[in-house]
Amino acid sequence: MLQGFRNFVLRGNVVDLAVGVVIGAAFGAVVTAFTKFLLDPLVKLVTGGAKVGGAFTVSGVVFDYGTFITALIQFVLTALVIYLFVVVPMNHINERLKREEKPPVAEPSNEEKLLAEIRDALRARP
């Protein structure tokens, strides 16, 4: 059982996924910082210093929709940057590799060579 688990982990996909999750988390932190330190002040500048988003209260429960709007902006920015800097270049590289890959020309089998020789010999007869 342990051998099967080790093979599963070392197969490659799990390791690639783990690396992707770690890099994604780090990238999420970068986008959060970008949103907090650049976009929020820009929105406040445009709105005249008002708080980004807002909140409302129902029966003493606070619903902070500003947090949701900020998370939505972060998600859109993260998806956009991943698309532009990961997906588009990878698609371009894959297309280039597909164009360069040409199927090898199949060499005729021995039977085909012999049949061609027989055909040529028959044609050469008077």
Summary keywords:
Non-ribosomal Peptide Synthetase Peptidyl Carrier Protein, Chain A; mainly alpha; 5% strand; 126 residues; two-stranded antiparallel ribbon
Structure description:
By secondary structure, this protein is mainly alpha-helical. The protein has one domain (2-124): Large-conductance mechanosensitive channel, MscL, domain 1 (Non-ribosomal Peptide Synthetase Peptidyl Carrier Protein, Chain A), CATH 1.10.1200. A two-stranded antiparallel ribbon has the order 1-2. The N and C termini lie far apart (75 Å). The relative contact order is 0.06. 75% of the residues lie in helices and 5% in strands. The longest helix has 36 residues, at 65-100. The chain has helices at residues 2-10, 13-46, 65-100, 110-124; strands at residues 56-58, 61-63. It is built from 4 helices and 2 strands; from the N terminus they run ααββαα.
